[in-house]
Structures are given as structure tokens and as C-alpha cells.
């Protein structure tokens, strides 16, 4: 049931369900394969898998916010940003999230949180300095639509398997293979486990990337319909993408691990990211969609 005024997206819901099903299936296959190959290490594997899942689900938002240097601000400290968040929450019938600012010249914004009750929306100082109020509203509406659609939590869980594949394989290699070097199967296992891990990682990586690109288009649509000003969001997209291209590469490199959270990817002008590997659809595709919505609203 839709409990907010953000435009629902059945396509996004379907993709989230399918992605979670496939990720869950991969998770079961991966852990099952490790249990079969590393019979003596199964208690450790289950403990590590469970601990990593809990850590990823409960603390990934805090880790992302901490890594970006996000600090929570009060309405007195950031009245303009709080005013924008208040207006979008009133329009969208959402509870107000915590509001934060990250001291970074990279113009961007992101939202984190497992659910509406522990959500935080953050804008960088570079974004606040560059955008007009209506453009900032479009960006904040985009970020809060991720919360309304619940895709922030789904992306957090979906990205877990890639982390698990790497960590458990290392633990298996350290603890599972080196106890008995006389075992004739040890060499085979030492080869098979990294291959299985790599395959699982690649599949989960591609699944999350496909979902990430679609959820960004969905957030653009929901924000455009909610605010009724798709041109403002298009202007913000164009401005942010252009300004990011001028940011020093070193600063962008520090931000790139969090691209999946961002309003726009932190890529330099010369970065030619493959569409298959990108966390976001191309700028042209996003602007084309917003142009169609503008024409639709004009006809109304």
C-alpha cells in the first residue's frame, strides 16, 4: 500500500523483488558450496556470514555517512536546507529525516537508512553553494523518493553478497586449507573456492548495478511529479554533472566508492564508464526522461 505521495513505481518494485530473490538464491548457493568444500570450517562460515549480514544491514548507512564526513545539522545551523527538506516531506507525506551536511566541494547528495524512521539526507557544501533553491528541492525530492520507494534498504542488502564472497573466501583460504597440507584435495579446493567466489561476486555486482540504474530513473520520475518542476531537476542534473567534471581527480577518487548512494556519479570528464558497470543511467537518458515528463505536465 502506498503511504506517501511519491509516484509509485511497479517496475521498480518488481525489479527489487526479482533482484532480492536472485541475490538470496546466490547467497544460499554460495554458502552451501563453501560448506560442502570446507566441511571442517562450517561453524566459522555460518558465524561470519551471519555477523557480516547484521553489520551490513545495521551499520552500512552509518559507515557511508561517516566516510563522507556527514555531520547532522539543526534548523538554526542550516535553515535553507532544513526548509527544503520540510517542504518536500510535507509534499510527499513523509516523516522528516535527519538532515546532514558533508564538507566536500564535490556537488552531490545522498540518503541513507534502512527505513523511514532512521533516514538521513545529506547534501555537500559544494552542492549547497552551487544550486538555486528550486534545483535543490528537486535533488532533495530525488533522494527522499529513494526512501519512499524503500530501495535504499534493498540496495544495502543486495550489495551484501559481494562483501561476503570476498571475506569468507579469505577466511576459508586462511583457516580451511592450511590446517592439513597433506590433504590431496586441498589444491583443488584452493582453486575452486576463489573461482566460485569470483563468479558469485560478478553476478551479484551486475544485478545490483542494473537495479541501481533503474532506481535512479525511478527517483527522477517521482521527484519530477511530486514537485511539478522537472525542469528544475534537469537543471540541477546538468549543473552538478558539469561541475563534477571540473573537480580534481583526487577528490573524485575519494568519493567514487559511494557512487551508488549519490544523486550523480562522481566521475571525471575523461572517465568512460561502461553502461553495464555504471551505477547511474547516462545524463542524456535522465534528461530525456525529464523532458518527456515536462511535455506531459504541460499538456495537462
From TrEMBL:
Cofactor: Zn(2+)
Cofactor note: Binds 1 zinc ion per subunit.
Membrane topology: Multi-pass membrane protein
One example GO MF annotation: zinc ion binding
EC number(s) given by UniProt: 3.4.24.-
Compartments reported by the entry: Cell membrane
Recorded superkingdom: Bacteria
GO biological process: proteolysis
Enzyme kind, highest EC tier: hydrolase
Keyword match Hydrolase: yes
Domain Peptidase M48: 75-291
Bilayer-crossing regions: 12-35, 41-59, 152-174, 186-207
Active site location: 143
Keyword Transmembrane helix: yes
Chief location of this protein within or outside the cell: membrane
UniProt keyword terms in alphabetical order: Cell membrane, Hydrolase, Membrane, Metal-binding, Metalloprotease, Protease, Stress response, Transmembrane, Transmembrane helix, Zinc
Residues that bind Zn(2+): 142, 146, 216
GO cellular component terms, A-Z: plasma membrane
Listed PANTHER family: PROTEASE HTPX, PROTEASE HTPX HOMOLOG
Family membership: Belongs to the peptidase M48B family.
Name of the protein described by the UniProt record: Protease HtpX homolog
Classification lineage: Bacteria, Bacillati, Actinomycetota, Actinomycetes, Kitasatosporales
Gene: htpX
Amino acid at each position: 500500500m502506498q503511504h506517501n505521495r511519491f509516484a509509485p513505481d511497479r517496475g521498480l518494485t518488481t525489479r527489487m523483488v526479482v533482484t532480492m530473490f536472485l541475490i538470496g538464491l546466490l547467497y544460499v548457493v554460495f554458502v552451501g558450496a563453501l560448506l560442502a568444500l570446507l566441511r571442517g570450517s562450517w561453524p566459522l562460515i555460518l558465524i561470519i556470514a551471519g555477523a557480516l549480514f547484521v553489520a551490513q544491514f545495521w551499520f552500512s548507512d552509518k559507515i557511508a555517512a561517516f566516510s563522507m564526513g556527514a555531520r547532522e545539522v539543526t534548523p538554526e545551523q542550516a535553515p535553507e536546507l532544513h526548509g527544503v527538506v520540510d517542504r518536500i516531506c510535507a509534499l510527499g507525506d513523509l516523516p522528516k529525516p535527519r538532515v546532514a551536511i558533508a564538507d566536500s566541494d564535490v556537488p552531490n547528495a545522498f540518503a541513507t537508512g534502512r527505513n523511514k524512521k532512521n533516514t538521513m539526507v545529506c547534501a555537500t557544501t559544494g552542492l549547497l553553494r552551487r544550486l538555486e533553491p528550486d534545483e535543490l528541492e528537486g535533488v532533495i525530492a530525488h533522494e527522499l523518493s529513494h526512501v519512499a520507494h524503500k530501495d535504499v534498504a534493498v540496495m544495502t542488502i543486495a550489495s551484501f553478497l559481494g562483501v561476503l564472497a570476498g571475506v569468507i573466501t579469505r577466511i576459508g583460504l586462511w583457516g580451511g586449507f592450511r590446517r592439513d597440507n597433506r590433504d590431496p584435495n586441498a589444491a583443488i579446493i584452493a582453486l575452486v573456492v576463489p573461482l566460485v567466489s569470483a563468479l558469485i561476486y560478478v553476478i551479484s555486482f551486475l544485478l545490483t548495478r542494473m537495479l541501481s540504474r533503474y532506481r535512479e530513473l525511478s527517483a527522477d520520475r517521482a521527484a519530477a511529479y511530486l514537485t511539478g518542476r522537472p525542469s528544475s531537476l534537469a537543471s540541477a542534473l546538468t549543473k552538478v554533472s558539469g561541475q563534477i567534471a571540473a573537480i580534481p581527480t583526487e577528490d573524485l577518487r575519494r568519493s567514487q566508492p559511494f557512487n551508488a548512494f549519490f544523486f550523480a556519479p562522481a566521475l571525471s570528464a575523461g572517465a568512460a564508464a561502461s553502461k553495464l558497470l555504471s551505477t547511474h543511467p547516462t545524463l542524456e537518458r535522465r534528461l530525456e526522461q525529464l523532458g518527456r515528463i515536462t511535455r506531459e505536465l504541460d499538456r495537462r
